[in-house]
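Hi R.,

Here's the chain you asked about this morning:
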Amino acid sequence: MATEIKLPRLGQGMESGTIVKWLKNEGDAVEKGEPLYELDTDKVTQEVESDAGGVLLKIAVREGEVPVGQTVAVIGEQGEEVSLDQPSDDGAPASAEKPAEAPKREPERERGREVSAQQEAPPTDGATRADGRIKASPLARRIARERGIDLAQLRGTGPEGRIVAEDVERAAAAPAPLAAPAAAPGEVELVPLTSIRRTIARRLTEAWQIPVFQLTIEVEMTRALALREQLVERAGDGPKPTLSDLLTKICAVALLRNRAVNAHFSEDGIKRFPTADIGIAVAAPQGLVVPVIRRAESSSILEIAAARADVVGRARANKLTREDLEGGTFTISNLGMFGVQQFIAVLNPPQAAILAVGSVEERPVARDGELVARPLMTVTLTCDHRAVDGADGARFLEDVKSFLEEPGLAL
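And here is the predicted structure, written out as tokens:
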């Protein structure tokens, strides 16, 4: 009996996803657990595995946004008839009577987008619709923005001439003429919102409504820098530990001493966690993401460095999974490498606190009645006042300062 493959809920709060590419064609054999299509969610683009094995009898939705629970394909035995009530991509009822037949050309319309009756007309050229909009998958648009490719110069090879990711990758590898020209002076550039950017906007708006307070402290980094140099020498061919790796370990130890800060706030209560799963804010091409280093308190700094190198590399290659991004109990945002001395980070709900880390700079300090130069770093803790009191945050920062100035206390 045929099995309907429905769009899964891949995380709490997920209501829809955008299918960007099918990895199997109608008529192909599929094994249970085998990657079936690529899905762009509010956090990542990832491969979705098949729930069943057999033959891919029908692709009900080739591309576009789909609500959770909607049927996107049917898998069954070869020759088995399929009848679906919901429409397929071309707007006609899905059926397995002619599984390999291409959809009939109709007035162009992108699934899930409103187009007025006056605009509905056959495309004028390749991937360009009569209304002037370029037909391209969300993933293709994102890659084009990252690579500086002008979609108007490409001819799509996807369904009905739509530009897909492979078309953009091919253009990126081609000689320069396909690259987008620089915008004219004074020209306004409209950058469409990706699903990830929409999620960032929504979550930051929610975070801005939370009653927060900030605490700032200055740390002398002489011993921390010396320890980092020693760890770099010991790393050999492995990832070189950074100050962020050292800070991750320091914060993890301090969090377990101050569990009020290692917490989530919810309407049902405050969750205080027994392990420090620390999120690292990463500026990836698709937007700000926060992959999580698990159980940082029980990991060495070299192990944290390896885990950080892995998740940051995959973040910048857009290869993170939802599991990489979920479950963090605390977040560190470091802008010191950009020369930022001090800043305030926006809370990452439901987490109760986030630490903003500035640059390490030589500054004058008084020692034994004399003015001397020392490497100093400013850190600012933002706390959700519904879950964390001022004294709790202050004690946590006090421990962070003590451990950085004398790392042996934490290690």
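One quick note: The longest helix spans residues 301-316.

Cheers,
M.
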